[in-house]
């Protein structure tokens, strides 16, 4: 699937809440940016349930950036309360900008509005996660003040292969 190249436009970019009519465009932009390669080390994969679940539970934290009637990118978030913590956290689950429009400030516009809304909802900290090799995203988040980078280890167990238990008798 290929994206059409965008001609420079004079129309202003605006960020607004996602509506039901945006779902398919958001889904397709996500398919272009969250490829299998992107999510191979993540436990989450981009699919229609990701959008609809967040859209149903956290509509105010589902945003799109648009120019004219074209969606340029989106941000989908939620808030979480951790066990044993009085704090409410904002969790920015997905942030994606059309490839041909990246590095033009769209992600920043989306993030700023998301941050404002999460703060308004009482969140005291925002969490993001991405793969360790996604340097553009890591640079983006660092630029916006994220720190305290923590590495996680993901492991897989192939259930289709028969394995011998370690130490088991022959
Ligand atoms: C991460 C992402 C949302 C940033 O959106 P964007 O519109 O390109 O970001 P902005 O133009 O607002 O900000 C640009 C900044 O982001 C970082 N950045 C974005 N693309 C980059 C790239 N290709 N290489 C290095 N840094 C990059 C830099 O910090 C840059 O600032 P700088 O030029 O001053 O160094 C976008 O790259 C994207 O959609 N990536 C694929 C999906 C993804 O990884 N999402 C994040 C995890 S959910």
Uncertain runs are 1-6
The CATH superfamily is Gcn5-related N-acetyltransferase (GNAT)
What is the CATH-assigned architecture?
A: 3-Layer(aba) Sandwich
Structurally, the number of domains stands at: 1
The CATH class designation is: Alpha Beta
**Sheet with the most strands?**
5 strands, mixed
Which structural class should the secondary elements be placed in?
alpha+beta
Element string (H = helix, E = strand): EHHHEEEHEH
> What name does CATH use for the topology?
Aminopeptidase
Beta strand count: 5
The proportion of strand residues reads 15-25%
Give the distinct bound molecules.
Answer: coenzyme A
Which overall shape is indicated by the principal axes computed on the Cα atoms? globular
Compute the number of helices: 5
Rounded to the nearest angstrom, the distance between the terminal CA atoms is: 51 Å
Mean pLDDT: 89
How does the SSE layout of this entry go?
Blueprint (H helix, E strand, L loop, with lengths): L12 E5 L5 H11 L2 H4 L8 H10 L4 E6 L2 E12 L6 E10 L8 H15 L4 E3 L7 H9 L27
Parallel strand pairs: 4-5
Antiparallel strand pairs: 1-2, 2-3, 3-4
The protein binds coenzyme A.
């Amino acid at each position: 699937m290929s994206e059409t190249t965008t001609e420079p436009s004079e129309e202003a970019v605006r960020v607004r809440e996602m509506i039901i009519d945006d779902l398919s465009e958001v889904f397709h932009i996500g398919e272009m940016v969250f490829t299998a390669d992107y999510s191979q080390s993540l436990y989450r994969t981009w699919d229609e349930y990701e959008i609809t679940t967040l859209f149903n539970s956290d509509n105010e934290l589902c945003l799109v950036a648009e120019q004219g009637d074209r969606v340029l990118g989106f941000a989908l978030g939620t808030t979480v309360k951790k066990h044993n913590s009085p704090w409410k956290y904002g969790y920015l689950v997905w942030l994606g900008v059309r490839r041909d429009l990246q590095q033009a400030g769209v992600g920043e516009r989306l993030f700023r509005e998301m941050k404002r809304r999460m703060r308004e909802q009482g969140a005291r900290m925002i969490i993001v996660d991405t793969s360790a090799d996604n340097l553009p995203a890591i640079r983006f988040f660092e630029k916006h003040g994220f720190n305290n980078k923590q590495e996680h280890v993901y492991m897989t167990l192939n259930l289709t292969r028969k394995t011998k238990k370690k130490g088991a008798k022959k």
